[in-house]
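Notes from hallway chat w/ T.B., transcribed later so I don't forget. T.B. wanted the structure written out for a chain they're using in a teaching module, and asked if we could keep both sequence and structure tokens in one place. Agreed to drop them here.
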Amino acid sequence: MKKLLAVILLGVVLFTLALGSQAIAAVECPPDLANFPKGDAAAGAQVFGGKCVACHRNGGNIVKRNKTLKPDALEKYNMYSAKAIITQVTCGKGVMPQFGKQFTEEQIANVAAYVLQQADKW
């Protein structure tokens, strides 16, 4: 029953994100990380709270429970860097959708900075 509810919730979240999205620019995958702006964690908190929190509340993961945004999982899955997070958010991977068309490069860099700042606090 819990799995069914999680799948339904994920479907609703992804459907809502798809309906609310507008293309900002073409997505380059993998992104050109050398030209990405430096992230601002405070601004990233705003973006995270608007979209990412739907699946990653308190640094968790409602879809893949072991793939959280906490230090041990970030390290285990080679995601404990701004470059890795930027690539994942921009291009998506597995069940995580691509957000490169919904967010600007600046917003994505900000989310990465926020996740790295928060990782030890979640």
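Follow-up for T.B.: The domain at 2-118 is CATH 1.10.760.10 (Cytochrome Bc1 Complex; Chain D, domain 2). Might be a good example for the class.
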